[in-house]
Each structure stands twice: as C-alpha cells, then as structure tokens.
Amino acid sequence: MQVYKLKSVILVSIFAILFAPLVIAAPNKTAVEPNSDSNDLTLTIIYDNNPYEKNLETRWGFSCYVKGAEKTILFDVGGESSVLLANMRKLGIDPKMVDIIVLSHVHYDHIGGLSDFLKVNPEVTVLLPKSLPRSVKDIVKRAGAKLVEIHKTIKICKDVYSTGELGGFIKEQSLIIKTSNGLVVITGCAHPGIVNIVKKAKEMLTQLGTEYMPPADPDVILSAMENVFGGSFVPVFTPPEKLLSVQMNMHGNEFPYGSEFGAVLAVVNKSSEVLIVSDN
Description:
Blueprint: E1 3-5, H1 14-19, E2 42-47, E3 63-67, E4 73-75, H2 81-90, E5 100-102, H3 108-111, H4 114-120, E6 125-129, H5 134-143, E7 146-150, E8 154-157, E9 160-162, E10 175-179, E11 182-186, H6 194-207, H7 218-229, H8 240-243, E12 244-250, E13 263-269
Parallel strand pairs: 4-5, 5-6, 6-7
Antiparallel strand pairs: 1-2, 2-3, 3-4, 8-9, 9-10, 10-11, 12-13
Helix pairs in contact: 2-4
C-alpha cells in the first residue's frame, strides 16, 4: 500500500526508468504539446497483498489510484469492495473524486470490488477489455455508469493511453502515462508477458511524438548522484553485466493465473571473484 510521488530526479516506476528520458521530439515530426508534469503525478497503491502501512488491510489483488493527470483514474478495483473502500477512506481518498475506472483483465481479484464501488460513485466511466463477460458489463450498466469497451489502443485523456487488449487466452490492457520524464506503464497481472507490454509501449512512442532511448549509462547515474548527495553516499559500483551473464529459457509465452511453467536459468561468471548461486 505505497504512495509513489514521481519526482524529476528520481523515478520510482521501473518502467519510467526504462523509458526515461523520452522528451526528445521524433525526427521529421511536428512538435507536440508539453507532457504532463511528473512532479504532479501521484500513484497510490490502495489494494494489494503486500503489508506497508499497518492500518491498511491487505488482500490478494490490485488497485492503483492515479492522481495528477487530466482525469483521476482508478486502475483495477481489487477483489473485495469492503477492503477497497475501507483503505480509500483511511488514505483520505474520496471515491467520488474518481473520474475513470480502468479494469485490466477478467480475474476476480482485479474486478471484484466494482459493484459496490459503483454504488458509491455511479458517475464514473468504466473502461474494460471488450473480451470481459457480459455479467461484468451488466454491473456497469445497472449502476448507470458509462461503459467503454476497449479492444485497440486508445487515448483515455491528455497523456494517458490504454494499450488495448493484449494476449491470447487471457486478454489484458495496461495503462500508459506520458510524463515530462518519460512513460509510466501500469499493469495488472501482465498475463500477456511484461516484455510484450513494454514492446507495445515502445511501438506507441512514435505515435506519441517521442522516440525510444535506452537506459542511462551507470557512470552517468553515479555522477548525478555524487553531485546531489556527495561522493560519500555513492558506493563503488560495477555494472552487473561485467560480473555475470544470465539467460533464461522459458517454455511457452503465456502463463494463465495460478499455472506452473518450466524454465532453465543459465548463469555465467565473468569476474575473477568466486560466484555463489543459492536458492536463498
């Protein structure tokens, strides 16, 4: 149950780190309007199974409150509405301030809180994958909320997009937010595969008027940290790729909820130091 405030110096989302910086205009394209200020974007995890604040309840599932974009968004609604609404109340989040609900996929621990949430705020717009069953769509219609079925990539509001449905057996949409420091990608379970979701986000960069740049060089990061915190705060750092190489071969490319999968992990020691591999 964490609150992430996106700063201009430190980006807490790993996907924002992967994509930063992304504010360079693509070649031969007209300049685009300024992106949302990442200083104003706040992501609050209000439902999951990781204890963080002792006064909040934990359950298997997910819900993320996105504030600071043009519209206030609730991404997924957890599995139990009582836990969702109680945690929102404890965090001082008014359900009636939510403009849009985005549901990632069909699993109950991501959509179970929908019905009771809509009793509190039926004025929202609910964006859900087109593949979701009629029973879920009927919940939205009965509540009088606006229903939008998502199949392809769409713009939700200024600088906020859906990837559209990705995957095979379990179709899932993810949220992409374009900020002044790069893209933030929010996923549910990432059933289509996180690599495929990131790939889709990269494909969207051209459409959004930006181009992909690889992660920053470790030496550049260290130099920036030394300037901000001083040399004494920065440990001696050796890039992992100089110490070892890791390759994982997995059987299959989709992994349904709760299923097992097979994988072979190969670790090669590239340093002169002894390498210890342990299941701990």
